[in-house]
Amino acid sequence: MATCASNSSEGRVMPREGIDDVSAGMTQIGPRADVDVLKSLEDIAHHSTVKITPAEPVKRLGMGWHWWFSESVHVPIGSKIEVCFQGPTHLLALYNEGMRKSGETSIDGLRSQLRSFVHKLTFVPAGCAYRERHEASACIRVTFLYLNPAALQKTGSGGAGFLPRLYFEDSLVWETASKLKNAIESGQTKYTPYLEALSGVLAHELARVDQELVGEQAVSRGGLASWQKRAVVDYIEEHLAEQVCLLTLAELARLSLHHFCRAFKQSFGIPAHQYQVRRRMEVAKLLLADRKTSITEIALSLGYAQTSSFSTAFRKTTGWTPTVYRREFE
Length: 330
Description:
The chain is an alpha+beta fold. The protein folds into 2 domains: about 1-215, Jelly Rolls; about 225-325, Orthogonal Bundle (Arc Repressor Mutant, subunit A), CATH 1.10.10. The chain has helices at about 35-45, 150-155, 170-185, 190-215, 225-240, 245-255, 255-270, 270-290, 295-300, 305-320, 320-325, and strands spanning about 1-5, 50-55, 60-65, 70-75, 80-85, 90-105, 110, 120-125, 130-145, 165-170. Strands 1, 2, 3, 4, 5, 6, 7, 8, 9 and 10 form a 10-stranded antiparallel sheet that branches. Strand 6 and strand 7 (about 110) form a beta hairpin. The two termini are about 45 Å apart.
């Protein structure tokens, strides 16, 4: 196992010629440079990682062993970056924190302009082209897991044929991926069987998510099916600054307007319009934490033509005026 720190935008965390300089990194290999350690360093040297430009504001720390590599990336607030990746490994992104003023994420034909992606997951199958642009309105902390397809093929699930997914939520995938990240970063090569076992569970969970995406086509228990909720919520998130048309949402869910309104309220407990306002206010709370952005700018970015209208909506939802809420961060 080895670790290295870098803010480089190059597609490899550690070049082959830098192996002899590992002791200058975040942790030292120790006095026993045996064959296993040297092999792990060579494995890391050949791991393709995401390319981030510009490199300077970004902090990166990567660790890996054999088929598995984990990288933690921190993007400061206000940064404008572009992330690109296309390689022989699967890429799973876990967004611990993340919000952008503008930007877009794409995997081949899939695209999303989702602004808030806290606790979201993105999966890029091996060979797919992944690209995203961020103008960060809050700090972005993301873990990239690079998984050799061979690690998933050993599970009997095939490892091939996984579908690309943008900004999805699944507690089981998140939990398993987090365990895999912690195991990779444990620094103990003896955990290889555990890594293989976790990879098997992760492959199973990813396959399950794919089956749900393809198979769910019906309204369940009077509410929206999972695929319908994902489609509607993603659209609302991407159009927070606009007045969302209910008919458009109904068409996304493939329901009549009347049936959609009833099913949405059954699923979320409130009508679609109130849901959008609530999400705007949640985003506003995060933006108010940054005193560099004026309240007027926040109001305009969320689709309010007048600051007074935004203040009224914010107070009705939170019980605070934007000014008083911002003072809490002083």
